[in-house]
Amino acid sequence: MALRGIIVNTARLNEEQKSDMYRLMVNHYNNVDPLEFAKDLAEKNWTILLVDRTSGKIKGFSTQMLFQHQYNDQTMLVLFSGDTIIDPGHWGSQALPVTLGRLMQSILASCPGEKLYWMLISKGFRTYRFLPVFFNAFYPRYDKATPAWEQGLITSLGKRKFADRYNSTNGIVTSSAHSQSLKKELSIPSKAHQKNHHVQFFLNANPDFGRGDELICVAPFHEQNIKPYLLRCLKTKKRKHLQFRF
After folding, report:
1. Biggest alpha carbon distance in the chain?
2. How many domains, in total, are found in the chain?
3. CA-CA 20 to 30 A from 221: which of 42, 110, 141, 237?
4. Low-confidence ranges of the chain (pLDDT < 70)
């Protein structure tokens, strides 16, 4: 059963869609609070819905917030991905990275000349693996030390978004009383996954992911930094200009 990715203005989500999204979170995460879920959702510009092409049911989603950020005398756009989940029956689908790429393309089409970075916080190895699937260059990673400029960017974003919960020594957002964590059966990597260098890196970099700690990651979005397969997928889609204000 294939998934179709849809970009929706979060303010236009209906109650049934929100209820389906909340149910997905409860089914796959611990400590999901309806008020915190609603608060997180309200601050996001867009929601990517992953819909079953046959049944029309929501099988996954990812919330997205765009903001301007200043670092080292540079102004850039940052797309921050918040709550994200895909039903296990659809793991391996490329619908999310392709739709996320379409969203970032649309942002750049609406803001010519701007630099755009993706900010991802990973509390599970599957989320972290979106980075090597999608991008050539991203940080942090197992095979290359994070350059000073990118490390400074990560730190500035971490402090801006999470204040004293961000640990600049290890790049981790420490869990709080409101933090969610993946249910154990979804968070433990298989033996095959444990042999993957990217998974090994994530487990070492974020050893307390099981309690809800999150690793901050960044990647620049431009054509030269996108893996060939996904770039081909994106080039088949017509870019759409988005309307938004900061």
Report:
1. 49
2. 1
3. 42
4. 1, 237-246
